[in-house]
Amino acid sequence: MSSYSRRAFLHTLGAASMAAAGTSIFPSVVAAQTAQYKLKYANNLALSHPLNVRAKEAADAIKKETGGRVELQIFPNGQMGTDTDMLSQVRSGAIDFLTQGGVVLSTLVPVSAINGIGFAFRDYSQVWAAMDGDLGRHIRTEISKVGLVAMEKPWDNGFRHLTSSVKPVQSPADLKGLKIRVPVSPLWTSMFKALDASPTSVNFSEAYSALQTKVVDAEENPLALIETGRFYEVQKYCSMTGHIWDGFWFLGNARSWSALPPDLQAIVAKHLNAAAMAERADIAALSTSLIGKLESHGMVFNKPDIQPFRAALQKAGFYDQWRKKYGEQAWALLETYTQKFA
């Protein structure tokens, strides 16, 4: 595991009760009452996830460097509501910051989900070249048009893999009719329909329950979320498809952001972007170490050949459909960093 402590990663998900009292679960962040700017930051991930570990470090660094003028109050684990609830709140200013993936953000900024094109990225070298490069800049420009500000460095959620309670997925034929939970996203739904699966859109906070009650038999997520979400309790098989790379934009309400003086904006952005880079390293390390941990919980892993899946999507017209949706400019930027889709 990388430099953040193992104890922090394995920390219990308790302390949510503090949120009911209207406070962040990080006492050191909210202890002082003299901050000139108190900024609420919400996300849907467990306290033990590297994103929250690194966000806490950033909050402490921001508070220290600004002499206590800026406090970033962190509300993890969906305390502020579902993904769609929190997106509405950050737009209205009810919360100041949110980390959100392009899949949910695409309801406002369609091109923000372009990284979710099935089997687009081969590895992280392609991902970060694109997201830190021209493709990422293009997406941030589009985000700025809906009253939000995106920090420069996206955070990592990881490559997504398929889990199932009924069978391993070794080929596209294994997906036929499979009831699979997907995020609330036309792109995700379209992809799994093109692969003849039966996708159902469920918010992340409700995914465990949907699997437990057999509303769905399968789901797909990065290994870190499979572990912290305890999906291994209700899923037997994990197929290492890496079908989508998924990340988070650190989004701010444009009015809240503009209310910060430029010098404080620079400090906040510096530490949030540095935290993003550290979190990327954490996720990369965990993506290797968590296989053994999940196996110890009884999960069975397999590694399918992804080319038949890609061919099936191409044959079904999936890539042509989304090329038209995103437009030639965005698609050309994507293909600058990936292999061609046709």
Residue runs with pLDDT of under 50 for 5 or more positions: 1-32
Number of helices: 16
Helix residue percentage: 40-55%
**Overall outline:** globular
How many β strands by DSSP?
10
Strand content: 15-25%
Strand count, sense and closure of the main sheet?
10 strands, mixed
Q: Give the radius of gyration.
A: 20 Å
Mean pLDDT: 90
**Class based on secondary structure composition and strand pairing:** alpha/beta
Q: How do the helices and strands follow one another from N- to C-terminus?
A: HHHEHEHEHHHEEEHEHEHEHHEHHH
Distance between the termini: 39 Å
Structural commentary:
By secondary structure, this protein is α/β, with parallel strands linked by helices. Strand 6 (179-182), helix 9 (186-194) and strand 7 (198-201) form a beta-alpha-beta unit. It is globular. Helices cover 44% and strands 18% of the residues. Strands 1, 2, 3, 4, 5, 6, 7, 8, 9 and 10 form a ten-stranded mixed sheet that branches. Helix 4 runs antiparallel to helix 13 (262-296) and helix 7 (124-131) packs across helix 16. The protein has 16 helices and ten strands.
Summarize the topology.
Blueprint: H1 6-9, H2 17-20, H3 27-30, E1 37-42, H4 50-65, E2 70-75, H5 83-92, E3 97-100, H6 102-105, H7 124-131, H8 134-143, E4 148-150, E5 155-164, E6 179-182, H9 186-194, E7 198-201, H10 207-212, E8 218-221, H11 223-228, E9 237-253, H12 254-259, H13 262-296, E10 300-302, H14 307-315, H15 318-326, H16 328-337
Parallel strand pairs: 1-2, 1-3, 6-7, 6-8, 9-10
Antiparallel strand pairs: 3-9, 4-9, 5-8, 5-9
Helix pairs in contact: 4-13, 7-16
